Amino acid sequence: MPPRHADAIIPPPEAIVVPTKRVACDGGGGALGHPLVYMDMGGDDFVECAYCDRRFVLDAHPKPENEYLSPAARPPEAH
Ligand SMILES: [Zn+2]
């Protein structure tokens, strides 16, 4: 049975990797929840939520959305 950490209830601010500079945050619900806000990183590659202190970090290698939206990118008879 793992020991309980009664003093570790408050987690450190999270760093969330996102593929775009424009992010939305609602605190994740629960005790840290807050109204949904939209943030833009502007010239930076990260932004911190003023409500819950979570940090959103821009993915260094964002995937182009076209890959997700193009199922025909792979020929059905590739082999
Ligand atoms: Zn937030």
UniProtKB/TrEMBL annotation:
Pfam families: zf-CHCC. InterPro entries: Znf_CHCC. Gene3D superfamilies: q5lls5 like domains (2.60.260.40). It comes from the Bacteria. Residues 21-56 form the Zinc finger CHCC-type domain. This is Zinc finger CHCC-type domain-containing protein. It comes from Brevundimonas denitrificans. The lineage of its organism: Bacteria, Pseudomonadati, Pseudomonadota, Alphaproteobacteria, Caulobacterales.
